[in-house]
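Reposting from the mailing list since nobody answered there.

I have sequence plus structure tokens for a pair of proteins and want to know whether others read the tokens the same way I do. The first protein:
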Amino acid sequence: MPSLAAIRELRRSERLVALAQGAAAVVSRHPGAEVWLFGSLARGDWDAFSDVDLLAVAPTRAVADALADALLDARLGDDVLALTCERWDALRRGDDPYWRAIGRDALRLFPS
């Protein structure tokens, strides 16, 4: 019988695959965009009550906003933050410990 940890990791892997596939379908309509997963699911310390936190990253604010809306409409994320590529790079490399932690733990879903 598999351990609880093994079952949990399998469920996480299945969820990540489904999110990546959904993100690929949405991002295909937003040139130059990326989708990043952050929070408990990205770190692996999620539970049944955890939400799905996504970053919609694109070359311009307008494309990032449109991507965030599309991800929400597709019900891929519960919380979706829109950022330009330049802003995302600055935040994850900056001095703010909150954003540095997000940058360290985030998983790029698409493009992979």
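The second protein, same order (residues first, tokens after):
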Amino acid sequence: MASAYASLPTRYSPEHVWALIGGFDSLPDWLPFIPESISSEGGRVRSLKDPDGNRIVERLIAFDDKQRSYSYTILSSPFPVNSYLATLRVKADGEGSLVEWFGEFTPLGVSDAEAEALFKGIYEGGLQALAKTLG
């Protein structure tokens, strides 16, 4: 099993950051490389579209508003992995917060290092976009 991790310290309160990113269907609000998200199954499934028109379908596995985290799995995507499980969470960090995005997955047809680099890049790019959105 391979894994990837990225984090972003912010000067904003965890409540402020979670209000922006805590909705499972909120990726287009802060992530420019996901311009579309369509929810279904009562908000437990999201169908994302990237700028190239690729579809990524994900299912919410766990949501904890009090702990400011959610975990999800990929149902279908162009990514060379299966058994994907990721978590996005916001923790208090001094007077600000720490946003963490991490996942575990089984690479398909690529090495662990290649799959890890792919998702580390996605997570880091997403958190850089979040930093810009926060200002």
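Reply #1 (J.P.):
I read it the same way you do. The mean pLDDT is 96.
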